[in-house]
């Protein structure tokens, strides 16, 4: 059985429009690329929408993977719209419902769909032995909630280094995108023993990916600004509480002036 036609509009170029005149020479590019291993990097992933071959309930598991190490203990994760980070290298979307018929699927969307992974210094290096990629696994859920889900397909996306478009902009300042692009990720079935079924699609996802150097200075400014906001709020509440007590005392004295004189 062939996969149904996916109702995605044809993607135009996902290449970043860097002016050719400003493109550094190969030697300079290589020198700048080597600096990546000394950077703390942030990788954004957002699942814009998805479509699966069969109607049902699905969720996506995202996992950072590396060819060079199995130690992911220093990776931090942010689940949007929250601003806090916590240690984790795996993320889960919310559950989305695939509607429509098997041969006429409809796009579905996830509520929890955007995440940022903060990769520690030295995790990414500019050589083929340190490939870092994102593993996306699709799980289907039964309608009767009888299980926690069954894996039905997976796809991989290169984080760094990238050998295809868009190019990595090594001259980007901290906090600016080194690349940003939209990509349709095919989800290949992982079940079945027949070779001809190993590469069959179970669905596709349209995702946006971005990589940048972590801007520690900007993060510090935001933290200081938030601390100042909290300090002012605390001071305002303290003043309001003091005014409230003062007003209550004045009302008490007006109600019983003789007691106030005593």
TrEMBL record:
Residues 220-230, 237-262 have a biased composition (Basic and acidic residues). PANTHER family: COILED-COIL DOMAIN-CONTAINING PROTEIN 33 (PTHR21623:SF2), SPERIOLIN-BINDING FACTOR (PTHR21623). One of its GO terms (cellular component) is peroxisome. The lineage of its organism: Eukaryota, Metazoa, Spiralia, Lophotrochozoa, Mollusca. Residues 220-262 are annotated as: Disordered. This is Coiled-coil domain-containing protein 33.
